[in-house]
């Protein structure tokens, strides 16, 4: 899978993604990262990429021409027009299921805006999806693009090692991850739950499932609507889980 990230801050995006697990996947050529500096495409003699908004108002607007030419160069190079995602707080909220779906694409173009916005006409011509990472305002689309690329890339087969993929079911089945423990068995007077030391795999799995249901009920009850719960799970919620957790 190939990510093409159009940005005015290419160093920020590279530094964010060429590290750790995603950096390793790029090194191993399981995914590729093509960071495109929008400024390289401006036809303005002074390298300008923004101008004042028609109709007045505060701030500067990114102009259509350099963004379009950057996009056109990418699409000409790869020979087709893949989905082009514009990062904006006005977009649909990014979710795990969206990450899973987008991980199936061959190429993805992520367009990072800055300043007060982007000329609407270029968005109309090239953007297929408007996506937000949550209801708060950031200074630009770079951090959201990195968030999305990370979440999508880790769903691409081969990006995570077996060991790392242990946690992938968190949120997938609609339930939060159960609590985890490592050595020592006692720390600051706190014991690891006994069942985890028992070696009884079935009991361990049952305990973990119960803790997942309990955590989801207590911390993110909004997720339970989508969660796959058995009749036993529902009974336990009604009977065992404290109402004031
Ligand atoms: Cl995608 N962009 C910006 N600038 N701010 C945001 C966002 C995106 N998602 C949440 N806040």
Overview of the structural elements:
The chain has 245 residues and is of the alpha/beta class. The chain contains 8 helices and 10 strands. The strands form 3 sheets. A 5-stranded parallel sheet has the order 2-1-6-5-8, with helices on both faces. A hairpin with a 2-residue loop joins strand 9 and strand 10. The longest helix is centred in the C-terminal third of the chain and has 19 residues, at 201-219. The protein is elongated. 25% of the residues are buried. The model has no long low-confidence stretch (mean pLDDT 94). Bound molecules: 6-chloroguanine. The site of 6-chloroguanine has 12 residues, from strand 5.
Features of the shown structure:
three-stranded mixed beta sheet; elongated; 245 residues; 35% helix; 8 helices; five-stranded parallel beta sheet; 10 strands; single chain; alpha/beta; binds 6-chloroguanine; 17% strand
Quantity of strands, as a count? 10
Strand order of the largest sheet: 2-1-6-5-8
Based on secondary structure, the structural category is alpha/beta
- Quote the average pLDDT: 94
Uncertain regions: pLDDT < 50 for 5+ in a row? none
What Rg, in angstroms, do the CA atoms define? 23 Å
**3D shape:** elongated
Distance between the termini: 42 Å
Order of helices and strands: EHHEEEHEHEEHEHEEHH
Helix content: 25-40%
Alpha plus pi helix count = 8
The hetero molecules present are: 6-chloroguanine
Strand coverage percent = 15-25%
Q: Biggest β-sheet, characterized?
A: 5 strands, parallel
């Amino acid at each position: 899978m190939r990510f093409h990230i159009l940005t005015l801050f290419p160093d920020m995006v590279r530094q964010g993604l060429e590290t750790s697990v995603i950096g390793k996947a790029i090194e191993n050529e399981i995914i590729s990262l093509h960071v495109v500096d929008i400024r390289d495409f401006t036809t303005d003699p002074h390298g300008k990429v923004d101008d004042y908004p028609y109709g007045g108002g505060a701030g500067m607007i990114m102009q259509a021409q350099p963004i379009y030419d950057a996009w056109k160069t990418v699409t000409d190079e790869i020979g087709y027009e893949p989905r082009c995602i514009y990062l904006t707080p006005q977009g649909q909220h990014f979710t795990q299921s969206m990450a899973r779906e987008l991980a199936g694409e061959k190429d993805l173009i992520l367009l990072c805006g800055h300043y007060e916005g982007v000329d609407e006409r270029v968005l109309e011509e090239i953007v297929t999806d408007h996506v937000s990472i949550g209801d708060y305002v950031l200074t630009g689309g770079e951090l959201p693009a990195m968030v999305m690329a990370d979440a999508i890339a880790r769903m691409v087969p081969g990006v995570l090692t077996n060991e790392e993929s242990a946690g992938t079911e968190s949120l997938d089945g609609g339930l939060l991850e159960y609590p985890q423990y490592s050595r020592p068995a006692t720390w600051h007077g706190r014991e690891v739950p006994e069942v985890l030391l028992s070696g009884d795999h079935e009991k361990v799995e049952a305990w973990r499932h119960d803790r997942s249901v309990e955590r989801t009920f207590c911390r993110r009850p909004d997720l339970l609507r989508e969660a796959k719960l058995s009749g036993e799970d529902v009974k336990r919620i009604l009977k065992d889980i404290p109402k004031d957790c």
